[in-house]
Design brief:
Elements lengths: L9 H29 L3 H11 L5 E3 H7 L4 H13 L3 E6 L2 E9 L1 H21 L6 H19 L4
Antiparallel strand pairs: 1-3, 2-3
Helix pairs in contact: 1-5, 2-5, 3-4
Length: 155
Amino acid sequence: MDVPPRWLDPEQKAAWDSFIRMQEKLIGRLSRRVQADSGMSAADHTVLVNLTERGDGRMRFLDLAKLVEWEKSRMSHQVTRMAKRGLVVREECPDDGRGAFIVATPAGYKAIEEASPQHVEHVRRLFIDALTPNQLSTLGRISKRILDHMEKQPD
């Protein structure tokens, strides 16, 4: 026996549609700004932020792909493009012949350090400044709750 779909009611649909539109518009604007300000793509920025926020600027390839929710092939193409520009290098993993580390180079660190002040100003202007401190705190708790819930769900 087929289970009928659990359609969203009007309030649920409005909340979902607003969330998706806000997220798409915010990411689109931030992506265009990082490209215009630094010449980096949003994907370059995502990879470099995640690498450089760690003390040694390195992550296992698959861990990085999982962290940013990208398929292996997308991460592989992105790393190849970034390596050609000298922003990252791929290093073999000594204890796993099939594994690799992605490592931010000095040029990668310099690129993200130069892009970050402008990027954070755009984040502040487009996102942080739109909310009161209480609203920001509430959004943070809601976001964490959804992330925790998703971790318990099958992919």
